[in-house]
DNA sequence: AATTCGGGGAT
DNA sequence: ATCCCAGAATT
């Protein structure tokens, strides 16, 4: 039996019941694929259901505000996915008459859609012969065929896409693609897979050569930068506070946060500097909310964070009631603070 | 070609 | 701590 047939047979027996598996609607498939980029099924599922409910069609998504889209995306991370999702919905409604592109070639032109996602939508929604290559597929192919090319090198990316295309099933591409990913997620797991019950264990190169723990090969680990965040939590005469939207480059684009001073600082320094971000506000009292820094860990940055409670007498024009903060899309770091404050 | 985008779960 | 997740865009 061929590799692809074994994958298909395994999938038929082991596939999970997931919300986006009840449809081939390209809008729904697109939604699920964007959400699941670099995201586990367990984390993404509730967000998928939420978006499906709030935006049943691409028109609903296109007509929504970015703020609402980001709010529903809050906590899922990689927020450019949400901004691009919204941009592409508007693009399809405005420029493509609301009709979703139906070929790999056209799909890959969409913002936020790369080789993987275009292949997934083309194969699942339109039955086009396109092999998906995600993290699961890299692992399954690297092990089964004993390939030690780094999966994140230009040569590796090209090689694995070619290999995936060569070994894909010639029919049932829809189930085959989902099957090889499911197989990678459940059976050919990153760590300590149970190869004794694997249907491919009679022909897996990595298993025969005892390389299961060594493959796939991935180049270099990332370097983590440390940053010091000092958030100014203003409390004005009405008990309201201030938020600012993050603009420009960097993390959390277009999300909201308290006014931020990014530097090492003690109470005196903060007191001296607060008017840099709040020039119109006179501070009456300032106190440190958390003595030990809250360390918020992102993949490339560790944020050592202090929250400063800044009391002022005046009533701020753009003050926001604390009970209204939940309306704004904020990073998890801010949401966690609001919860405990 | 290398870096940068989040957050969480498993080990 | 480290790894990695149904990757893509930017530098």
Automatic annotation (TrEMBL):
- Family as reported in the entry's similarity comment: Belongs to the Nth/MutY family.
Q: Which residues form the HhH-GPD domain?
A: 35-186
Q: Which UniProt keywords apply?
A: 4Fe-4S, DNA damage, DNA repair, Glycosidase, Hydrolase, Iron, Iron-sulfur, Metal-binding
Annotated PANTHER family: ADENINE DNA GLYCOSYLASE
What is the recorded function of this protein according to its Swiss-Prot or TrEMBL entry? Adenine glycosylase active on G-A mispairs. MutY also corrects error-prone DNA synthesis past GO lesions which are due to the oxidatively damaged form of guanine: 7,8-dihydro-8-oxoguanine (8-oxo-dGTP).
Organism of this sequence: Cellulophaga fucicola
Superkingdom of origin organism: Bacteria
Enzyme Commission number(s) of this protein: 3.2.2.31
Q: Does Heme count among this protein's keywords?
A: no
Give an example GO molecular function: 4 iron, 4 sulfur cluster binding
State the protein's name. Answer: Adenine DNA glycosylase
**Entry's cofactor comment:** Binds 1 [4Fe-4S] cluster.
List the cofactors: [4Fe-4S] cluster
**Reaction it catalyzes:** Hydrolyzes free adenine bases from 7,8-dihydro-8-oxoguanine:adenine mismatched double-stranded DNA, leaving an apurinic site
Biological process terms in GO annotation: base-excision repair; mismatch repair
Which InterPro entries does the record match to this protein? Answer: A/G_AdeGlyc_MutY, DNA_glycosylase, HhH-GPD_domain, HhH_base_excis_C, HhH_motif, MIG/MutY, MutY_C, NUDIX_hydrolase-like_dom_sf
